[in-house]
Amino acid sequence: MGFGAIVAAVTGFGGRALSRSRTDLGADRSQFTVPRATNSLAPIPDTAQPGISPYITPNADFYRIDTALEPPRLRSTDWSLRIHGMVDREIRIDLADLQRMPAIDKLVTLTCVSNEVGGDLIGNARWTGYRLADLLAMAHPHADADMVLSRSSDGFTAGTPLTAMTDGRESLLAVAMNGQPLPVEHGYPARLVVPGLYGYVSATKWVVELEVTRFDRATSYWVDRGWAEKGPIKMSSRIDTPRSGSSIRPGMVTVGGVAWAQQHGIDRVQVRVDDGPWNDAVVELPDDIDTWRLWRWNWQATSGSHALSVRAFDHNGVAQSTLTASPIPDGASGLHRISVTVR
Ligand SMILES: Nc1nc2c(c(=O)[nH]1)N[C@H]1C(S)=C(S)[C@@H](COP(=O)(O)O)O[C@H]1N2
Ligand SMILES: [Mo]
């Protein structure tokens, strides 16, 4: 079974009726203090364009992937994180402990491995949280450990390379999303955010445990179901406007969308009409290696049926793969191509 069936299941009527009878976290969430970040991000320019995804995805529009039929409901006072396994010192941290530690803001584009080329299982947010490197250092991981098996209160697990949590990329134990306490569906009160890795190997919501271990000793939820052990995000690009299958007028048309290459950064985006030459698009700021970039290109559209394709290049000059691959086992690849009718 793919991830699709699970996404559909959570939106069913049954799920909603059930959740209403459960713990109401409204009061708990409204009293939750979002920590003040010790860093300050550069102001985000307003690059809003009709039809193109906003740079920051509003919380209410952010995609969701859950194995549970309804999100776990954890009160912030009931939450704690246990770090154990191959460590010198097992520790347990609660929210009061976290509040004494420095928090940071970080922009990260989260992506699902089951996202098809051109799909919408991707979103960008400003996350506020605590560096996982600091938390893990407190437990002193053993030198021969290479994986962190994170576990949620609902039994989901993800296996993340230990280095991705301890190197300079600033992986987070996040407690806020776009300035708000995490929405319940996105992991309240705490979740993991690891730049550069698909969510199924890194982004554990309602996280309560980090077990330091080894890839040759432990496996995780989706890896047990046939997905790859390692899940670096593949560079990709998407056309948001015009919509595939739409009819548009001849003349100047803005073609635009998003492109991402987390941990490498998007350098260049190009658009092609039918089998014509590749044209350089304007790529918007910010140029952050861990977030998507918005792009647009002005097309003088001529009557007829046309195909539009997009491709991206990262800051190392590497081109997006043209090889068509389906999401399983380690993420889709290939170019996004849409059809439009001009008349
Ligand atoms: N507890 C828990 N955490 C989880 C999941 C899950 O099913 N349960 N799904 C993972 C997957 S596959 C992805 S892509 C991201 C999605 O995060 P979001 O729902 O906040 O967008 O969460 C990850 N964390
Ligand atoms: Mo995912």
TrEMBL record:
Protein name as it appears in the record: Oxidoreductase molybdopterin-binding domain-containing protein
PANTHER family: SULFITE OXIDASE, MITOCHONDRIAL, SULFITE REDUCTASE
Superkingdom assignment: Bacteria
Organism: Gordonia jinhuaensis
InterPro entries per the UniProt record, alphabetical: Ig_E-set (IPR014756), OxRdtase_Mopterin-bd_dom (IPR000572), OxRdtase_Mopterin-bd_sf (IPR036374)
One MF term in the entry's GO annotations: sulfite oxidase activity
Domain Oxidoreductase molybdopterin-binding residues, every copy: 71-222
GO biological process, one term: sulfur compound metabolic process
